[in-house]
Write a structure and sequence with these properties.
CATH topology of the largest domain: Nucleotidyltransferase, domain 5
Number of strands: 12
Helix content: 25-40%
Order of helices and strands: HHHHHHEEEHEHHEHHHEEEEEEEH
CATH architecture of the largest domain: 2-Layer Sandwich
Number of helices: 13
Largest sheet: 5 strands, mixed
Shape: extended
Strand order of the largest sheet: 3-2-1-4-5
Radius of gyration: 35 Å
CATH superfamily of the largest domain: Ribonuclease H-like superfamily/Ribonuclease H
Number of domains: 4
Distance between the termini: 106 Å
Structural class: alpha+beta
Length: 432
């Protein structure tokens, strides 16, 4: 059975058409924002006026395609390809599947299945052609994000990282000092951008594991996309992450790093700032406003492509680390070497071995959720051995083990005397 609610694309269309209805966005600008033609946007606008958000839902929502292959057939095809035709292309593999195995499948369908399973990738025969990319036309359409490590305080403090966001259309900047380029550092500067301007359409980053990562073996086998914690947070906000393959691809933020490493370092020196807490306060109070007045310019198009600003509570719910854990039979969740004992809820009834979601915010506060329900818990300490000498006293050393007794008989042992007599007595007597 397919989905029953609105997809992310349909929700985006609902939001944009709502802005058209409110008069803050023209229909032609809505078409560009949604990536549609003007005629198609007119059809969507007519459906929205007639039936509201529900009218933008696809008509086949919740239905299974009549042409869809069965899951067992797909598993059999992929198993046969991995066993016999691992180095075959999709077209050649389809021919042998039909002639040798009796499995009829279209080449493009097999190509899609193999790409989803991570079993096939087209080999390029030549170097890709690259050309200079034009700047985006709308404010908030694309924002570049990167971190710059530098001796920002010179000899007055340690080396730090300036998390920096630059709008591709206007070069408007937001920055924040952190110790490392981590998940929470990226969250800190992104949250400041959202609170100031709104939710951007896309982020342009590099291939650091903070933002994007390659899929592991299990994800390639199951055909699942590789998503980082920061990528999951951006997906909840509807932000697309685009990874740049070279520093030149996101040249605006890279060139801005050089500007800050020259101007900002000198301004911090003149202000006598010796800590990064003071430097962040200086950024918000003076430097960023002056920098944007000097370097930012108007976008080519007037429309603002930022989405509405979420509330502080909504941002708190989005910017959390999430990890799935299995509930033990005694209702204990193990997380980060901690034992979290769930309180017995009246509802819902949670069976053992269920999967729960553990969420942790930047302050280290932990919450446990089962489906849509918040669960109460308390942390328990692992059992420890009681000290024999009393609470807090060091245990006395163990007594030395007794020396093992020698098994060698003494010289006057009866066994030795009897043995000596037997050696002196001849075995065969003369009378015999």
């Amino acid at each position: 059975m397919g989905r029953t609610g609105l997809s992310r694309k349909e929700l985006s269309r609902v939001e944009v058409m709502g802005r058209v209805k409110a008069g803050s966005l023209r229909l032609c600008e809505a078409a560009e924002m949604l990536g549609l033609s003007y005629r198609q946007s007119k059809r969507i606008w007519a459906r929205y006026r007639a039936g509201g958000a529900k009218a933008l839902q696809h008509g086949n929502c919740g239905r299974v395609s009549n042409r869809a292959y069965g899951t067992e057939f797909r598993a059999a095809v992929l198993k046969q390809v991995k066993t016999r035709y691992e180095d075959f292309g999709p077209t050649l593999a389809c021919e042998h599947l039909a002639s040798d195995d009796g499995l009829q499948v279209h080449a493009e369908t097999l190509r899609r299945w193999l790409k989803e399973a991570g079993c096939w990738q087209r080999q390029r025969r030549r170097e890709p052609y690259r050309q200079r990319r034009e700047a985006k036309a709308h404010f908030g359409e694309l924002v570049q994000l990167d971190g710059s490590f530098h001796q920002w305080l010179e000899g007055r403090g340690p080396r730090g990282c300036l998390m920096h966001m630059v709008d591709d259309a206007t070069t408007t900047a937001v920055a924040w000092f952190t110790a490392e380029e981590s998940i929470w550092a990226a969250v800190a500067v992104l949250r400041r951008w959202i609170e100031r301007y709104g939710v951007p359409q896309a982020l342009y980053t590099d291939w650091k594991n903070v933002y994007v990562r390659p899929p592991n073996a299990q994800e390639r086998m199951r055909g699942e996309p590789a998503v980082t914690q920061f990528g999951r947070m951006c997906a909840k906000l509807g932000i697309e992450i685009i990874a740049a393959s070279s520093p030149q691809a996101k040249g605006r933020v890279e060139r801005a790093h050089g500007t800050h490493q020259d101007r900002l370092v000198k301004k911090l020196r003149l202000s006598g700032i010796a800590t990064y807490e003071q430097a962040n306060a200086y950024l918000d109070a003076h430097y960023l406003a002056e920098h944007n007045r000097h370097y930012a310019h108007a976008a080519a198009a007037h429309a603002d492509y930022h989405r509405r600003r979420p509330t502080a509570r909504q941002l708190d719910e989005v910017f959390c680390l999430e990890e799935e854990r299995v509930l033990s039979e005694d209702w204990v969740v193990r997380y980060q070497n901690r034992l979290l004992q769930l309180e017995r809820p009246s509802r819902p009834r949670i069976p053992a071995k269920s999967r729960v979601m553990v969420r942790e915010n930047q302050a280290g506060e932990t919450a446990i959720h089962y489906r849509d329900h918040h669960l109460l818990f308390r942390e328990v300490k692992p059992a420890s051995k009681e000290l024999s000498e009393g609470r807090g006293a060091a245990p006395s050393p163990a007594p030395p083990s007794p020396k093992p007794k020698s098994c060698t008989p003494s010289p006057n042992h009866p066994w030795r005397r009897n043995r000596y007599q037997q050696m002196k007595t001849p075995i065969f007597s003369a009378a015999w």
